[in-house]
Fold these 3 entries.
Entry 1:
Amino acid sequence: MKFETAAGTNPIDQMKVVGRAHDRIDGPLKTSGLAPYAYEQHDIPNVAYGHIVGSSVAKGRISSIDTAAAKAAPGVIAVVTAADAGKLGKGKNNTAKLLAGPDVDHYHQAVAVVVAETFEQARAAAALVRVDYARGKGRFDLTEALKTAPLVGGSGGPNSGEQAVDRVGKFEEAFAAAPVKLDAEYHTPDHTHAMMEPHASIASWTGDELTLWTSNQMIAWSKRDVALTLNMPEEKVRLISPYIGGGFGGKLFVRADAIMAALGAKAAKRPVKIALPRPFIANNTTHRPATHQRIRLGAKKDGTITAIAHESGSGDLPDGGPETAVSQTKLLYAGENRMMAMRLAVLDLPEGNAMRAPGEAPGMMALEIAMDEMAEKLGMDPVAFRIKNDTQVDPEKPERKFSQRQLVRCLREGADRFGWNQRNAKPMQVRDGPWMVGMGVASAFRNHINTKSAARVRLGRDGTVTVETDMTDIGTGTYTIIAQTAGEMMGVPAEAVTVKLGDSSFPAAAGSGGQWGAANSTAGVYAACVKLRDQVAQRLGFNSADAVFESGQVKSGNRTASLKEAAAAGELTAEDHIEFGKLGDEWQLSTFGAHFVEVGVHAYTGVSRIRRMLAVCAAGRILNPKSARSQVIGAMTMGVGSALMEELAVDRRFGFFVNHDLASYEVPVHADIPHQEVVFLDEADDKANPMKAKGVGELGLCGVGAAVANAIYNATGVRIRDYPITLDKYL
Ligand code: MOS
């Protein structure tokens, strides 16, 4: 089905099943330990254990590998290095190779896998693999590397061919002439995903066919990349990923656990399972690159922005890409004269890649502090300053309108609900015992992306509905919203729908990433259900145009039949996908919100505590208010992490991330987050898709870090532009 417009009504608008706060279908399975995660597929016989040996240098060449002692160790079945693996290719979404040799591109890049009868034997033998390196000179210092880094285009690496600097009007002149200006630099550090479930895979070969049970967000991408890496036809690869314990962007791609399990299983002639140990993840997999950002704002005395520039620099391995931190600044506020640019340095640190609103989150962490600073310079309330500079069109392409943009309403409603009028604009005025108390605000803003998504729907002879799609549920609630969608379309409760996800033998869906999963995958299910409804109506001899599906019945004119009757002559199956025409080019599809945060900073120790948080979001139709709220409070929690705690410490001598475990890479826990409230405005975006829905997951993260920083400034009068805001930075 090609989506042109959802103007008018469709069966989803009934909102009998969709739009209800439905508990997550997978919840009991997950909380009781019954959901089989990748490492826990217990019904695979004869599984051996793999353990990866990671490079102990960041850059250089392997001069020799001695595997003799490992091969002779108890229980060892096979040892695989690049020398034994045959020629490997590279997946489209991988920057660095997943098996090093002879060159090493980054610290902890896999150099070998040891397969043994038990996990302990594999790990012990892995320690016996002797690798000698000729260590090369690496580049590990972002500040240094940015001095000579070239400009890069919008979304790709240095060769993306896009125009490197976005300009509208004459920024420099307008900025020079502005009566009020800000010119400030902001730093965000490297981040690691820190998802609960580590990357894990079980590989099993049947002849030349490979099955991988793996923890992965994007089944179709990853199936392709496994095939490219192992130089085999895509049809011979099957990925199965029904339950995923968090991804955060770290599992958008195929990583070494999958490839080394496949190579190990081939050598061992047995299925092999590998989970990346926690201390391996920060350096073996991908991370969010650090940024150095400069923001310049010029405004008239009445608060109208006349000049806005955002420049960001980040680093990555050769052929990698930038952290696209300027992307939201292109669209968020009006201003006639604009300039956005990115620089990309080559660094020999582990691979930089997508993590939790890649680009948008760190970009908004800088921009939304800058807006707070500028409001103060203007003597304006920061809510009023943002409202003053709202735009209903793309500031770079004024003919392009937002399909919906309720930023102003989010800010106003948030201010009312939060008690913003209680805030003292002058910092350091409010005390609660030893705590200095402050409030901060930031806009939230994340685009919505349309992407093709397919599904198959079956009506069984017993009247039950089954959905099959390779869509994933990374803890977001996909099972539930897909059941709700099919339930609404077929006129049955969500409980009557069986949802099967995460298997590459099912039709290829949008996958989970970039907050595109919910709206696109359900739109694909909608498309398949439209076809299935036609088949049902046809079987019953009903006119499908006026057929109404509700309560397990199909009604047309004065005739009624049950779904069961329709299926009695044999089950019905329909498969379709949603795809998008030029509508998405005509309208800018985005989601908006406003974050309000109250913090306390301890006057004697400098410890920061979040006291309460509120997000007001406008993101199209909310398919399930309960799972959507969970997405947003999770994202707000990540925002607190990025504001106050999260930082990979770089060893600039040897080129690796030092704090590679959850003892030293700190993330917020429940006790750090006392009170969160989420409000969704009532919206339905008929320019987006037939569900009239958009994404919410990453919206909840974009901006919230800056709201925390702004609250800390309001509490203490200290403006910290270098995340995370740890207590040493008050000194
Ligand atoms: Mo998200 S960083 O696109 O999984």
Note: Residues 102 and 225 are 22 Å apart (CA to CA).
Entry 2:
Amino acid sequence: MATKDTKRALRSQAWWDNSANPDMTALYLERFLNYGLTRGELQSGRPIIGIAQTGNDLVPCNRHHVALAGRVKDGIRDAGGIPFEFPVHPLQETGKRPTAALDRNLAYLGLVEVLYGYPLDGVVLTTGCDKTTPACLTAAATVNIPAIVLSGGPMLNGYYAGKRAGSGLVIWQCWRMLAAGEIGYDEFMDRVAASAPSVGHCNTMGTALSMNALVEALGMSLTGCAAIPAPYRERAQMAYETGRRAVALVHEDLTPRKVMTRQAFENAIVVASAIAASSNCPVHITSIARHVGVEVSTQDWQTVGGDIPVLTNVAPAGEFLGEDFYRAGGVPAVMHELFAAGRLHGDALTVTGRTVAENVRTTLTSDRAVIRSYQAPLVERGGFLVMSGNLFDSAVMKTSVIGEDFRKRYLSSPDHPDAFVARAIVFEGPEDYHARIDDPRLQVDERCILVIRYTGPLGYPGGAEVVNMQPPAALIAKGIEALPTLGDGRQSGTADAPSILNVSPEAAAGGNLAILKTGDLIHVDLKKARVDVLISDEEIAARRRAMPPLTFKNQTPWQELYRDTIGQLDTGACMEFATKYQDIAHTMGIP
Ligand code: FES
Ligand code: MG
């Protein structure tokens, strides 16, 4: 079902068209001629398509978008549009301190201002590394000009000594091997480098591949875009087709608000479960939804996605990597399974101009080892558990990555197969954790839960990916590879740890995690989705009264502004005031 071509006056003509704006046109126009554009082009009523460029030398995960933009421009030109490429504030997950998450909203703000304030009729959003995707989509949602995503795609598969070495995951695994004395630092670095063999983003189902898959599920990219490995020829061909389609979107006035509906978000949540998506996805998807005016709550991840099985055998939940996922059919093959099982809204409209059903009806997988059938999945239930209790209102747990060994140790009591009690070891952030985890005085044993606090959006600005803490080296050497963890920070989407994370409200926002003491007993009940410290309400109240008031030490102007405006992880870590600016493209009084 394609939307109708309306042949409306284009937004950009409020800048370029002499009759619309005779006084100002010369000023708006002349500087764009100085590198060779002609008045004929700019005043011809052709769609002006922005290319929001997230690639640069500071963002290696997206750097090949600099080259891909050439093919996007070819596509835009061939379809009758005029491309304008511009930079997005750099967002590199692994290089930005204190966190890349802090800058998600900064890049968002910058992009909103560009999309709003320049003569753009539509935009191609180049996405990849974790925060680039939500920053771009949230901005397009706010402004609501026609937008389409070009994912950058994962790196090629990494291999070390003949075995697959997946992004991020290899680091967590090698930390354990290093701690157990199985490898030295040089081998550690060689193994980690082997996981990054080419341009592209993480090749595991971390936050990057998860979020780009969810873009496809939301209907905001062409079918099959997310999984194409970055260096493949198909990636550049996809760039060309995306450019072409961007021009058509403008003619059809197919805006983000027409695509990103409640149905589309439910589809995204269902796909998230089926791919065992990163635990960062609920945060980002909530942010996008709030800015496009659709109600999505963290609870939806359990109600809508809780009983969806994991279909993709891709790390960290499974064994394969990005190239295997692509060859097996990628997101369309996963969506085909879900659609055939009646779990998707098939009539949701997408930027292809067609519905989800039309896009995925024939997209069968070619490899059942990588993409399972709905009837014979990798894991029966892939959704996030959304937890609450006397320490917090909301937290999520990615149950699909809980290992057998952990289940045996913690979840095998015949009376309470879904619950355990553990002694809390509390850390005041990642620096404290690294300084003390191997201190024998902590007496960490296999009946402990590692807790980290002051690591949420306010406490460690942006929210640090630190909840997937490793056990002390002495315990790892004894074969205990994972302890349960709890924290108000986030964790890498590539982590395979049994963590309760994204705790909201965080300790720094007055959450009860702040009153916890090392030695307290914590009761975790996966069936009831509850986490409770086993002390009385009176004791909790007394400890709260005794707490000194909290002050923040901002290191940059942006950190101060961020902390003044930021919400919690369970509501998307949005700048709360910003969510009221919706559908603003035409508020300047232009067409
Ligand atoms: Fe950039 Fe994983 S660090 S995609
Ligand atoms: Mg990450």
Note: Residues 384-546 form a domain with the Glucose Oxidase; domain 1 fold (CATH 3.50.30.80).
Entry 3:
Amino acid sequence: DAAINRIAAGEVVERPASAVKELVENALDAGARRIEVAVADGGKTLIRVTDDGHGIAAQDLPLALSRHATSKIDGSDLLNIHSFGFRGEALPSLGAVGRLTITSRAGDEAATISVSGGAMAPVKPAALSKGTVVELRDLFYATPARLKFLRSDRAEMQAISDVIKRLAMAEPFVSFILRDVSGGGEGRVTFRADSETGDMFDALRGRLSRVLGAEFADNALPIDAEREGHHLTGYAALPTYSRGSSVAQYLFVNGRPVRDKLLIGALRGAYSDFLSRDRHPAAVLFIDLDPHRVDVNVHPAKSEVRFRDPGVARGLIVSALRHALAEAGH
Ligand code: ADP
Ligand code: MG
């Protein structure tokens, strides 16, 4: 029902960047190796995400737009979540707050479906060589009150860029490209990261060099540690590469970007002997653990987590980083 979709949509889609996050995560869940995002007017008039993933079969297109329809879990094990998506809320929400068109190819046939203000048009045949193209136009046109809360095109574009960079750090073997197509046509490439090669640590260093700059990558110590089923990997920068704010702190739990007080506190704790209060460590850290031992379902935006054993996660970060810093002579 359109009204319910619109209310729920507000929780999932706060601004263009949240729409981009949902769409890029869907592309990653579909196994895409190349993801292109085109945006006009800070995402307010157009967001288009093109991927080369496994696509959606024509008969499944209406289902993909139905609330709580997800192909990613069968309902028997809500906690055992390995994909980004699992709520089946993003597409119906986007279809409630903008004009959404999905064109996709699975197998030999491609098809397209559109939904606008919650009203779905019938599936039609389409031409597409591979993957999926999701186009969201005129975000919040049906809810002008929300439109007013959006920031400038520039600020919204910055937020979109941040979302893509975070996901690009988590997926170094996937190519990402962001275009600003505000002026029409091919537009201007504002971020590009080609797929990295080598082992996970090589690939991640390459990707971090691309996203955060060579200086971060050159000053970063590899982290690889384990405690009670919690695996910690990534790079932590030398104290000399600290920042005046927490801008260079990127934390991921089971591959999802998170902002979590516990983890940020642990990161600070690891550097407490080396940094004054006004300096912030820089690090990109991934914690991977059994999904049953962490709740990523705290909020629809999925950026907060709740650990079953918070002390283990914290202790692991503090000890692994202190160890790496000590090895580097600190
Ligand atoms: P969720 O990701 O939580 O399952 P969504 O509303 O984001 O819910 O997507 C609904 C369904 O549509 C997904 O479960 C998936 O089957 C399909 N889907 C969405 N985007 C893509 C895509 N880019 N490629 C392939 N399938 C997709
Ligand atoms: Mg999704």
Note: The longest helix spans residues 153-170.
